[in-house]
């Protein structure tokens, strides 16, 4: 069985009724777009998102929680377009993980990728997550369900995102280390102090974890926490260079065996409700359904 057909503790949708769900990745991506509203796109879509939902919904670590909240807010089927006030108020990671779960459930190998999008702010690479699924010929394709909305005016097809428009974190790291890109243009646009090589490092580690079946929240951290470029040591640089050099599924699994990179049983998480200031300890599940099994 393809490892990326297996649900993880994070993507597992539970007793999901597959009747009526499309199998086509494009149709599933549109379905997900109609179930979630990004917590920060209320102004763009003309529908203010309640503050409690902006803060609480994105703390939902598992697809089961996302589906539970959707059921609480409306009794329609997943295939029905939700009015905005019945949607889950999430982040790009939630669009990506829910789509990944539905792809796996309907027979398409998939995973989520952490990196940087060059299509939100001109000249800047914004922290972002998308879904990646495997085509029948073995190639991987990126799809961004979040931007499948007319409010996003894009020059490309979100169902086949070009690799130079979304840079997987390892590609962003290599571009900056090789002098082809400015690390100061990678980060979180609306947070002026969240950019630089240290921030790219954080996303490289999150992406490596995700492709190995540990699909964390964007604000989870573990190991040695670095908060500026000055804090990066030669060992840090060499370690992330090794991760960024990974190309194949076997490479990703081999690199992840390094105890300095593997996610431990507990991580620290910057809670959204405290404005990304307060760290709390979170225990993570370990299930044999993980792609690392």
From TrEMBL:
Any coiled-coil regions, as ranges: none
InterPro entries named among the record's database cross-references? Papain-like_cys_pep_sf (IPR038765), Transglutaminase-like (IPR002931)
TM ranges? none
Domain of life of the organism encoding this protein: Bacteria
The residue ranges of the Transglutaminase-like domain are 89-145
Q: Pfam families, alphabetically? A: Transglut_core
Its recorded name reads Transglutaminase-like domain-containing protein
* Protein species of origin: Streptomyces plumbiresistens
Q: What is the lineage of its organism?
A: Bacteria, Bacillati, Actinomycetota, Actinomycetes, Kitasatosporales
